[in-house]
Amino acid sequence: MITEKSSPTSPSWRRALPWLNAALAVALILAGLWYLSSRVSLAAVGAALAGASPGWVALAVVVALVTLVVKGWRWQLMFPAEQPPVPFRAAFWSTALGQYVNLIVPFLRLGEVARLYALNRETGVAPARALGTLVVEKTLDLIFFGLTILFILPFVVMPDYVNQSRLWLVVLPLALLVVLYLLAYRTAWVISLWRRIVRPLPDRLGDWLLRVAVSGLEGLAALRDRRRALLMVLISLLVAVLSVALPYALFPALGLPLTVLDAALIHVVVTVAITPPSTPAKLGVFNGAVALMLLQLGVSDETAVASYAILFYLVALLPPILFGFVAASRSRWRWSAAVPQS
């Protein structure tokens, strides 16, 4: 959860957590530089980065910033207009904090928890109610991610197990849409079904699970407004397009003769690589996934590969980290919120 301040009685290991995280990040950077210097000239990489087209780099930065704004706007729309409205400011900064926490806290994914409590601090919206909006958001992202993969499959040679999964890539988005429909438009039936499921449990536990479910379903109320639901779908499509546009804009920045299809493939692979909990700020994981894909796409110049992996990393992750740092200051989020209280 988000706290006003760290407890003076926090264990020393909890107070040392940010320093341990920073030490791990520095160690990863040094290891990466050592490995990079063993493969290419660091001076050549620096020259390639210095020679990157400022216009294309600026466009990529704009794409990254617009993506942050659009995601905050979409989350704001997920709260019904007839209830006390959630200001865009609160939705944006809460979203920025969530991304920041997921990036800087290693081996854990607590960003969604941070978002819920940051929004509660700013607007008073109950975390249980806002939980339903996160379900909608993640479902929409998953649907359009699956559609992106479907767009790629006809044009690239994929392993047999991926080709055999094409049917699932069609069925899963459709199934998720059906689930959202049932949750939003058949709420009474869903609650009745959930009541039967929790009935065998102890009374206190069953009542608590039922209250959480009902509060979460309130977060799906925006889906019942068809215009608002359509707008959220269109915004999700825009997010998917921007996610491909970002790596694509950096190809001409470094003179790489790659296509939109290649950018989509890089987006898919990098997203899969950085989704699980991993290193601070995805150091090494992000860069390694990008470098691997460039080599697979036929980019044989290791200096170009390293330069693109570094530039893409900086453009994609620095804006969320910088805005997230501001969001953490606004909400007074502390490292003690990243670990369970003893």
Distance between the termini: 13 Å
Uncertain segments: 1-10
The gyration radius over C-alpha positions equals: 22 Å
Strand content: under 5%
Shape: globular
Mean pLDDT: 81
Q: What is the percent of helical residues?
A: over 70%
Instruction: List SSEs in N-to-C order.
Output: HHHHHHHHHHHHHHH
In total, the number of domains comes to: 1
Number of helices: 15
Structural class: mainly alpha
Could you describe the largest sheet, including whether it forms a barrel? Answer: none
Number of strands: 0
Outline the secondary-structure elements.
Elements (H helix, E strand, L loop, with lengths): L11 H4 L1 H23 L2 H9 L3 H24 L10 H17 L6 H13 L3 H26 L7 H4 L2 H20 L1 H12 L4 H16 L7 H28 L6 H15 L10 H12 L5 H30 L11
Helix pairs in contact: 3-15, 4-5, 4-12, 4-15, 5-6, 5-15, 6-7, 7-9, 7-11, 7-12, 7-13, 9-10, 10-11, 12-13, 12-15, 13-14, 14-15
What does this structure look like?
This protein has helices at 12-15, 17-39, 42-50, 54-77, 88-104, 111-123, 127-152, 160-163, 166-185, 187-198, 203-218, 226-253, 260-274, 285-296, 302-331. The protein has one domain. Helix 6 crosses helix 7. 74% of the residues lie in helices and 0% in strands. Residues 1-10 have low confidence and may be disordered. The protein starts with 11 loop residues before the first helix and ends in an 11-residue tail after the last helix. The longest helix has 30 residues, at 302-331.
